[in-house]
Amino acid sequence: MAPSQPLPPAGPNLDLLFDLAPLPLLVLSPAWRITKASARFLTDWRVAAADCIGQELLPFVRQQLHLTRPSHLAYLTSSIDDAVAARAERTTDPINTTAAVSWRARVIPVFNGHELLSILLEWSDGPPPTQTEDDPAKPGLSIDEAFRIFVQGVKDYAIFLLDTKGRIATWNAGAQLLKGYKRDDIIGKHFSIFYGREDLDINKPQMELDICLREGRVEDEGWRYKQDGSRFWANVIITAVYKDGEHVGFGKVTRDLTERKSAESRLIAAYEESEKLKYDFLANMSHEIRTPMHGMLSACSLLREMPLSDKQREIVGIMDESGQVLLQVINDILDYSKLTSGHFSIHSDVVGITSVVTSVVRTSQATLPPSVHFELFLAPDLPRSVQGDPLRYRQILQNIGSIRVQASVQSEDDASYKILTEVIDTGIGVPKDAISNLFTPFTQFNTTTVNRSQGTGLGLSIAKSLAELLGGTIGYLPNPDHQGSIFWFTARFKKIKSLDQMQNWNTPSPAAESPTSPAAERSMEELQQELGALSSTKNLLVVEDNLINQKVMMGMLRTMGFRNIGLATNGAEALGTVRSKPAAYDVVLMDINMPVMDGHAASKAIRAAGIYVPIIAMTAYALKGDRERCLEHGMNDYITKPVDREQLIRALAKPGLRR
Amino acid sequence: MMMEINDRDSQDSQDDQEEFDPMAEFGDHVEDAIFSQILEMDESEEEREFSAPLILGFFEQATETFDKMQVALNDGNLESLSSLGHFLKGSSATLGFNKIRDSCQLIQQYGHKLDVDGSAVPDEQLCLKYIADALEAAKVETEELQKLMRKFFGQPAEC
Lengths: 659, 159
Hints:
The complex is a heterodimer.
Chain A: H1 12-20, E1 25-28, E2 34-37, H2 39-44, H3 49-52, H4 57-64, H5 73-86, E3 90-91, E4 95-96, E5 102-112, E6 115-125, H6 143-153, E7 158-162, H7 173-179, H8 183-186, H9 197-201, H10 204-215, E8 217-225, E9 231-243, E10 246-256, H11 258-305, H12 310-340, E11 349-351, H13 353-367, E12 375-378, E13 386-388, H14 390-400, E14 404-412, E15 416-424, H15 432-435, H16 459-469, E16 474-478, E17 485-495, H17 499-504, H18 524-535, E18 539-543, H19 547-559, E19 564-568, H20 571-580, E20 587-591, H21 599-608, E21 615-619, H22 626-632, E22 637-640, H23 645-652
Parallel strand pairs in A: 12-14, 18-19, 18-20, 20-21, 21-22
Antiparallel strand pairs in A: 1-2, 1-6, 3-5, 4-5, 5-6, 7-10, 8-9, 9-10, 11-13, 13-17, 14-15, 15-17, 16-17
Chain B: H1 2-23, H2 32-40, H3 51-75, H4 78-95, H5 98-111, H6 124-153
Helix pairs in contact in B: 3-4, 3-6, 4-5, 5-6
Protein name (chain A): histidine kinase
Domain PAS (chain A): 159-216
InterPro entries (chain A): CheY-like_superfamily, HATPase_C_sf, HATPase_dom, His_kinase_dom, HisK_dim/P_dom, HisK_dim/P_sf, PAS, PAS-assoc_C
């Protein structure tokens, strides 16, 4: 163990020994330069000694071996470093070459004391390099095999193959866990074994395969049965499998959704329960609120009948109005909750579109200041009566109800009419950014300005839902001619097939009201005063064939302050007069039964001529349906004969004169 | 408040007396409410420059119409009778002359071969007979009413 024992001089024997050793050997200087190479090395590496001796190791190896990865050279450097540092031999990882061989080097550092004399590299064949060396599937595993193992090992999904007939061909761990069948028990059985009685009765398994062949895949959710007879809620996806364009079977993936399903149904049950509670609560509350509210309002109206000072009357008025608004709010909320919970029913009844619209206009008029001018245009082709829900139609109109109303038939087929109703106003309009939210519940766009319209912000969304219930749509447009808005909606109504059907409708239409009822709330003196202020500037046309009646009408109208009264003795004359001066008259009072041309025909012709002067019919027939017929022929209102002064005042005090 | 109510009541009864007393004599010939509306159109209750000529005009119209009805009756022209009935019914109703109005209604109905209730009366001769009766009644009623009116307006109303 003497540290500096001199080496015996290297004799030719030793050189020969090195040369003839059946090993590919290299001797390196401490600076990794090749100083010696064995004959076997030169043979194996097919290199001449002159090209080898004296070369730097790394460039030499890089040049001689066509490495698949340059990084493999690092195996060599790190092994040499390692061996030198440890003063012990090391073997590199296989260094792959493109020539489908790999090389390992055994590194032997040779020290004399602390001095590195040389490094001996002994090369040997490594294992043949594989293409998949760096793929996740480790060397020796084909892709097919990887997938097979993967599928086999999946425990959360049942994944298996069916042959073209639907018989089970493969079985994975997931399938065994989920369905309970062992691999040997199930292979070769038809997959309908998993289905329940009901599904089998409708031949569902085969249907699924048929659909799958047609569409390429099929997905289903339903109950599937395990070996022990218990069932689970499954999501099943079947995919048709083709090999080289030929159908070879089906791939089936089944997932157990029992947990999700039960969570879902718990959630739905909880939601339904809370919806029901909410609805019940609202219904109860609004009932509880409405009952005393009605009591209060009745008391209010009784109080109004009593002699009160102006101040007191004003206060009662405020109470009454606020009560009405509150009632409306309650009704809105109830309606809305009914609509959203699907509790809303649509009735089928006879609807007189004209009378509903007229009645809404009249009611709205009564609630608005006199400065608001109202006009009602009914298209001449509006049907007299249709079948549908008059109450809902009325409700929509009331909800969007505003200043100007126009109703017309938009489209018509064999069984139904689609009625377009427009409400046009010249009010403040709707700002652009609010349009998209108009029909959203609980939004009111103009919250900043001082607003007379109190409410829940539900009106339009109720109207929207109702219109949809009636098979129509609702919308908004800016008024093209003025500032203001156009709200429109359509609703579908059935045609009434025959007269017999008409007569079977014994129930009176709820919209058919006495022609003067809403205006009756305003006192006669008020109306008379109002009319007196307007009448002297207004032009009337009285159409009446009977001289005595003419005189009485003229007399009555004069006492109301009218000075400009035209006269026509039959419908034809009236039509001629109105046509020649379309803008001359503010109101036409039209007798119905007249010689030459009756009031119905005359009104129809006036409307057909595009003249929308208000026409008030005067008819001796006070039968139900007369009113509808008058309105249907384009007249705006009607009064009965003999003409009663008060009735006439009420009719004339209505919108038509308020230009 | 009590005072107010009392005031009103007394005022109402005063109104009642003024309006109803002279009209009581008309009996069921005239519908008070309608006829008083006509009278209210007079600017002066003494002159009655609106109602007096109007009523006079009505009797002229009635007489003319009765003549036309007679002609139609002789011709057996139901259609014309019905329309004449309707015509005079209109003006008599306007003035509140109930009896004449009702007779005219009969004439109009039977002219349509219907009775008062609207049931069909297919027998034309029967209809013509009923119309003749109603026309006769209407003439009598008109005459009676004319006397009452003459008295009311305090001037001779010629036919």
